[in-house]
Records
---
Amino acid sequence: MTDVLTSGARGIRNNNPGNIRKSSTRWAGSVADVLQTDPAFVIFSAPEYGIRAMSKILKSYATRGLVTVEQIISTWAPANENNTAAYVAAVCRDLSLSPSTRLTTTDFPRLIAAIIKHENGTQPYPPEVIRQGVLLS
């Protein structure tokens, strides 16, 4: 697993497995500005903080009424940057759900794992790491 975590996909190397873009948001667990060497994506000090940020974003979607797999993924990965239909299909396949299935916060660990897999081509984290990240949110 160490090889994947240090030489694999950008999101894994950045401890940002959801590939959260840089913005004005100051995320808990993000590394100091001087260490933010990725030009586009936030770098976190540990994967739990990247997963925490994912969970916080998903919670914000829920407060806006975005609760189905299709609504969530269409917002997470808009069509102007992604093949959103393929992303929705992949997440639904991983979760064995339909695009119109309504999700709650109890579904976040599984949803986050599916997003990580799609974003990075792999999901290298044990369930405890994902659970910790969600609990931090």
---
Amino acid sequence: MHTRSWLIRALSAAWLLVTGIVIAGLAGELWLRLERRASIEASARFAEGNVFFANSKELNATNRSLWARHWFKYRPGARMEMTVGGELFRVEINSRGYRTHEFAVPKPEGLVRVVCIGASTTVAGRTNEETYPALLEATLRARHPGLPLEVLNLGVSGVTTEYWHGRLDRVLAYEPDVIVAYQAINDICWRHLPRYAEAHPWRGLAYRSLLLERLFPLPIDELEPLLMETLDTLGSIARACRESGIGYLAGSFAAPDPRRTSDAFRRHLDVNTESWTRRFPLHDYETYAAILERYNRRFVEFVHREHLNHVLVHQELSDPALFIDVCHFTPEGIERLSEVFLPAVDDLVRDTPAYRRWVESARVDADRRLLH
């Protein structure tokens, strides 16, 4: 009888414990979902007050009217223009399907050609002239007046490093002297996280619960092999460029510093992260920032080990004021991006045979003028 009484008390205690845990869990889930609703409302207010985020499809050249094949190729000759909140957004796609000026193939004799590849962070700008490759071109021309030089923006929103690896022959056919690569987020969010979700379906299911995601955060270490695939792809592109005598420059990837964001902007970043990672939902920006921090750490190790020309963009651009979301810049941020790349690109331009011939030709002309 005593044993039975003890068993009943033990079962009752266990039942109360389980019930308490369930109630606490439901309460925690409810609180997190209310917080999430507040973040969604904060993000909506941010969008209303920020003309660049509100019109990011135009700023980042993702408006549906521009595409021949969505997230793959722009429609040659496509154009759109609009003025919102006093800001002019104008996207013009050239006859080859890129948001850049027309360019000749084969390349004219003596021309130094720099090609920028990447995704929306490369193609972004209020106008074609305000993309970072166009700003880079203007600055380089001012530094080297008279030098035949152009910088082509071959950016395509939504693509990954694999896209450029698969189209490298086409890029090389444009006869670049220098290739500049800047991208990472599409690899992380649209390539690696979905593959991780396929390998760990239970985690994707569990993360439908905001509470379980908090209690059992994503193990970043498990993503490392996937992140290294992006770096291996960069290395493969770099080797192909080296074999072709082309200068190659890779940039690490920038994002707002989560320690410096305001509460309102942080909430906006949380919602924006959820949008980027909808194939494997991450509900807070800090998790994405941790993944990117791991990628950038491995990037630094990789470029030093492989002796690759590089720019540590993430160390230079982290001020939240330069961003409109987890990766895209304000117009000021785009200008700063061009400035960050400028010294390394200028060094590679000076190292090209065409530049050296131009300098020698200018020296010979100067000597002739002195003799006469």
---
Amino acid sequence: MLRPHYRHVNHLALRLLIIVVAVVVSNAQAPSSTPPSAPLPEVHRWFDLEALSIATRYRFIDTSDGATIANQQQWQLVGRGRFKFDKKGKYSVVAAVQSGTSFASGWENTGLGTGAVQSNLFLKQLYFDVKPIKPVEVQFGGITITNGENTEITGYDNDNYITGERLVLRLPKRVYFDEISLTNGYVGDLNRPSVFGRLKRLNRSNYHQFLVRKQLTKNIGFSADYTFDSGADTLRQAVKVKLPKARIVDSLLYENYERIDPQPGYGFAITAEKKLNAKLNLAGGFAKVSHTMLNGDRFPRGERIFMSGAYKVTREITLSSAFIRAVGPLATPSTHRTRLEIIFSYNILEALHHYRVF
């Protein structure tokens, strides 16, 4: 087991953590006052800030042979904005900045605990977004993969990035489905998160996806897709059912994938959610992943039970946790067995909205 490298803590990472604590303390102690007036409307004419948050998490991971491979504190920054060429936002450029150095990583090490210090921020997404008419949307550039109702357990990691183009049609009255999505792109450069190093791949293609989504009733929705990725053909489906009258759970999500070729096989996950009150939400379930994929790094090959919880401290502050444990035989002795995460996040955008700064 590696010793914590406390003397090598990066100043930027510490500053980010200090900022989070300072904002929380000031938010809790500051006297209530009338929020300032809304910003000038011409700002929103040109620019929309769609996401801005900062977080820190404690992460522990051990393997099936008992070795500890992660026992550390990490940090994360996520920001996304939209520059609009016209007043209605039909033509825009979307850019997203995030920490994390790979396709399946949005976190950086602080130097507290195992792992070397990291202080990276990358522009991971940059694409043109065109909506010539309401039912049609076209995206082109550095985009992400859409999972539909599938989560990153059976789909792609939430931190993913690709280069390519996507056409989205929303014509439920004409073609039954609420959304039809067609994506063509290039999946690669997995350790090259900066979009500027990947835009040259726009003339290459190794990934195609055809996805449909439908909200059947108020409480039942599903999605299905066919994906070709670097020679592998995969089908995915997911159904989410809300149970408003049930006492034990509020919703159930069943998702699965079938690898058609090569190495045929399947995997699935079932997740139950329960909102105990206005602040606390719990979830848990079981997952089986039979292939090495570009899915969430929390779920490598094997069978696992998982539990998570999220407590809304204030409108901006969330404290969450996740516990994942492998059951049954694992692929190799180095496969993850136990994973624990405790996450503290601050939604800066929510605070800006609340105080009408943006």
